[in-house]
Amino acid sequence: MTRSVFHRHLFAIVCAVFFFRTVLYGAETKEPGNTNQSVIARTPQSRLLTNAEEVHWLTRQEAASGQHVLIHGVVTCVLPTFQAAVVQDNTSGIYIDYWNLGLDDPLRVGELLEVEGTTDPGKFAPLIRASRIARLGTRELPTPAHPYWDQLINGSLDTQFVEIEGVVTAVSTKGVTLLTHGGKIDVQVLGINGVALKLYEGALVRLRGCLFASWDPISHQVNVSEIRMFVPQVTVVEAPPADPFAVTPKRVWALLQFDPHASALRRVKVSGQIVHERNGEYYAMEGADGFRFIPKQGANLRVGDLVDVVGFLNLTGPSPVLQEALARKVGVAALPDARPLDEKNLFRPEYDAVRVSVQAVLLNLSRDGQTLELQTGLQRFVAHLGGDAATSSFADSTRARHSKQIDLPLGARLQLTGIYAGSGGNRTTGMDVANFELLLNSPSDIQVLKRPSFWTLQRLLVLVGALAGVLGFALFWIRLLHHKVQQRTAQLRKEIQDREKAEHQRALAQERARIARDLHDDLGSSLTEITMLATTGPGPKPPVGETIKRMDVIAGKSRTLVYALDEIVWAVDPERDTLASVARYLASYVEEYLAGLNVVCRVHIPNTFPDQVISGEVRHHLFLAVKEALNNAVRHGCASEVCFHVRVNENQLWILITDNGNGFDTFGRPNGHGLSNLRNRLEHLNGRCELDSAPGSGTTVSLQLPLTTPDNQP
Questions:
Q1: In angstroms, rounded to a whole number, what is the distance separating the alpha carbons of residues 191 and 177?
Q2: What's the pLDDT at 563?
Q3: Residue range 452-472: average pLDDT?
Q4: What share of the chain is helix, strand, coil (3-state, %, to 5)?
Q5: DSSP secondary-structure letter at 29?
Q6: CB 395 within 8 A of CB 327
Q7: How many C-beta atoms surround the C-beta of residue 554 within 10 A?
Q8: DSSP code of residue 578
Q9: Per-residue pLDDT reduced to its tens digit, 254-288
Q10: C-alpha closest to that of 107 among 159, 36, 55
Q11: 0.85 cut: is pTM over it?
């Protein structure tokens, strides 16, 4: 039997013994003098956690409740100062605190342990307070995880066994700075002297060990720019080059082509000419292609210098970028010709870091004159004048000639020559840039092609402001006049209401006087006559025949009183103010009046009438006019047949009374006042009365009354 097979069998036997011991005998208390293990009593209420991942998923409240834990794992990191270790099983790593056990023999990396204890929320992540630790032998360390950039900085891999690959770009007393595939990150290397780490500067290394998140003990927030590793294993993948510039040079356009040996952690060498510098980032061109580089240390380079650049390639932007670059000057030359741009190709990524020329209209200028807001076509962009090394090493005379700020009026059309600096976009995928800036080296890069017209934005704003002031004053004056008009309107409305009220009272008084007059004239005289007929004087009683005759007269007078009273009531009843009520009442009166005189009556009235209000005064005069016309037809014309016709035509009420009586000469002098009364009554109502008659041919009386006159309104 081989040694490895023997160890596996021994491990299985030990695990079985501990399992059955725990099940059959329960938990034990710590024995005196035993410094290697102790156990705690399990409570039936606690939930048993059997792997590290379950502990990591606990909330701080759940971890603080002291959950019971029993896990098996291998030691990946030992922290003797804190009497703690990290144990990793097949799910995750977990921090173990065993200071209360007082172990005589400290734990070692690679030991296989059975750990029993309770959970604790810890200061950053949940951990295990060990109550018993059993050594089960040794085991190889687990396969390290290769975390992504976001996993390194978000603290999710705390206490995990990982391997990180990167180039050591800087070394400090606390650790190293690694340039990884995702970006730069500071690694605190605990347990290794900083002098020893200095040997790895510039090398491509792999750090293998237990990862600890760097966090603030007060806010518990993760430091996203730093991680910690305790005594990691350092493997040199590629030693630092003795001469970085000995790398085989490449053309800028070739950086975007397929290369099986390309990597973000391999040095690349290119050559070019510096065309601009801003905030420590240099823009350079090789032929028609542009690139950027960020020196590892400050470089004394100027616009126009020819340089060789060695650095680590980053292709995530619109143009290639060399990071942690080393640059050396090899010469000086005139700047390349600018490539023309128009509004159709403003957002192409191949123009990034390239010297270009564009025509645009100046929209705005910063107070210091260094930032210009421009527009070409419908697109807007910004141009910046100057940089930390904005002047050319071969053009000192040009620099002196344009040292003063030039006058740039708003609205002027300019020709600008500068360096295209795009944001967003990716040249490798063909994605257009989201926006760009134009970086200008000197005022000579700006030429005024056309000055703006007299109507500049400032003057236009002044004119608009003046017009706005005049308009505001006009609005204020209009508002004031409107207020005065409202006051005068309210005053006139009150006066009109007072006049209408007075007119209404006057009309009401006239109507009362008319009713009193009618009652006095018609009812009073008739009642007096009835009283005289019914009263017998002193002396002998009249004969029976005379009494009967008097009674007939009294009956006739009484009917007349009833008709007169009915007329008065009808004239003042507001429910009879409609045109239909007027027509029907007049027709009913004509029929009853002519029936009592044995005169044939023919009545023609419409079935429907418009919704028109007829006042009581109008109804009264109209009734008297009809009554007068009927009286003339029967009394003077001796008619045997009368036709009463009502129609509504073009907002006028037409009443035609036609008889077959004697007629008369309308041009002769009339006897009595009946005809003149008819005309007067209709003229009083804004209407008219027309007569058509001839001797022996009957008479036609036409009464025309407008329905929209003010007198007809209620």
A1: 16
A2: 64
A3: 85
A4: 30, 35, 35
A5: P
A6: no
A7: 15
A8: B
A9: 888 777 777 888 899 999 999 999 988 999 999 99
A10: 36
A11: no
